[in-house]
Specification:
about 150 residues; about 20% helix; alpha+beta
Length: about 150
């Protein structure tokens, strides 16, 4: 009986989520939209503080989400079927947490009801990013912030 009242992310698998539930797992941190560099020696992935040209640097929302693939062909589409590839996502990511069978954090909007908490708790990089339009790609290495995984 308790399982029936549990939030959808605890009682459903990723494959059972409808489109609205899937999209709502996004906490709005924007970290997946940061440019990443891969170390060719050990395949480690490092996040930079350089955001995709479509990411709003304050709200951490895509400025053209429905058409993003037209402007950023290598934008990665997260889907339940790719959950085994989510290791590059930050450990705070709702998609990654649910795919690993973990609960959402207390600051996640689905838990606390406040979409602003991701920024208040400084999980997002709101106000602490640069647009890829403003940094030469050869200089991205100077803007590493953390290692994925």
């Amino acid at each position: 009986m308790i399982a029936d009242t549990a939030p959808f992310w605890r009682r459903k698998t990723l494959d059972q989520l409808n489109a609205q539930e899937w999209e709502s797992l996004c906490d709005g941190c924007g970290l997946c939209c940061l440019q990443k560099l891969e170390d060719e020696e050990d395949n480690s992935v490092y996040y930079t503080s350089i955001a995709c040209k479509l990411l709003d640097l304050q709200t951490c929302q895509c400025s053209d989400y429905p058409n993003r693939f037209r402007f950023v062909p290598d934008c990665i589409q997260l889907t339940p079927g790719k959950a085994d590839q989510f290791k590059w996502l930050p450990p705070t990511c709702g998609y990654r947490l649910v795919s690993e069978g973990q609960d959402l954090p207390s600051w996640h909007h689905l838990v606390c009801g406040d979409r602003g908490q991701v920024h208040e708790q400084r999980i997002s990089r709101s106000g602490r990013m640069l647009s890829e339009n403003d940094v030469d790609e050869d200089d991205w290495e100077d803007h590493l912030i953390f290692r994925a995984g």
